[in-house]
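Q: How do we represent a protein-ligand complex in a form that can be generated token by token?
A: Start from the inputs.
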Amino acid sequence: MKKFKIAVLAGDGIGPEVMKASIAVLEALGKSCVHKFELTEADVGGIAIDRHGKALPDKTIEICRASDAILFGSVGGPKWEKLPREEQPERGALLPLRKLFGLYANLRPAVCYPQLAHSSPLKPETVKDGFNVLVVRELTGGLYFGKPKETVKSREGGGKMAIDTMVYTTSEIKRVAIVAFETAKKRGKRVTLVDKANVLETSVLWREVVKSVARGYSDVALDFIYVDNAAMQILKNPGQFDVLLCENLFGDILSDELAAATGSLGMLPSASLTDGTFGMFEPAGGTAPDIAGKGVANPIAQILSLAMLLRFSCKLEKEASRIEKAVERTLQDGFRTADIFSDGCRKIGTAEMGERIAERL
Ligand code: NAD
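Then emit the structure tokens for the protein with nicotinamide-adenine-dinucleotide bound:
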């Protein structure tokens, strides 16, 4: 029997609703497995600004540090959009959490289930069998963090000049490439590096380092694709990919494109990992202010994020796949939240979706 400590940061908007449904699933799992889960809730995002004056209070950081993993909801909303950018929920909580815990590898599985293929904006013949692509995105480097990063007075024409810097080191590329190959080993055994090696120096270094990492994985195939072609191929046939390894900006854009191709943001989990087993697990979507408080949000992304937490941080593969299978069975049995509803199915709310999944564990 093992005991795991989980920091529960529900956040704003639909965060608390979908979190509650996923905790119901974890409690049901706890009753039928030998392991124990100790949950500690903490404020983050807008609610933390309201209660404590900042998006990531020290107490919340302390609770995260004392935990094996963070189960995160989502943060932000119109109420806090007028604050200075640095103080807003996403900038004030998400980026600092990634930095504080060195969460350099972001895993975003984009799974389109055949029974939900009708929700995809792609042609029915393209998605009729569904698809399952994993984006492994570098999360703490590249254009988002590289220095110099500033807006200065331009020397020509009296206007301004803005600079972002794309910079990567061998070790930054190597560690995220290892995550991609290790993960690919357990699924389709293929890594595709997305780059722009025809014009970017950083991409040339990415190719060099990723090729050398690949030598240690004879059972995983490696190929390369330019980012513009990758964006096009995702629309034509997303199922051709297994693991897409991307630098930060390319991964940000392509993982959203893939998310849109699956049909609903409410279905997609994500994991942000560091060395060792610590990680932060959250839905790919945001706080959905348009439906918050109505009890209609889809909790599956949050529940699948919990499954990823069990797999990566607790190393409980069996329990993780029990949750994933329960989600699939619930969909097969025709239960749907509004975002994935189609004729002939039964429309249910957030809490009931959690209950239906919990009873199928
Ligand atoms: P969003 O993801 O919140 O919503 C986009 C659309 O997807 C909306 O129509 C919403 O109803 C729908 N949607 C999202 N999750 C859903 C779910 N679980 N079930 C059913 N439908 C769902 O994106 P947005 O509208 O651009 O952003 C809203 C707020 O969320 C903003 O304040 C933004 O800053 C914040 N945000 C936070 C995170 C995060 O915390 N990681 C990520 C993205 C956006």
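The first helix runs from residue 15 to 31. The mean pLDDT is 96.
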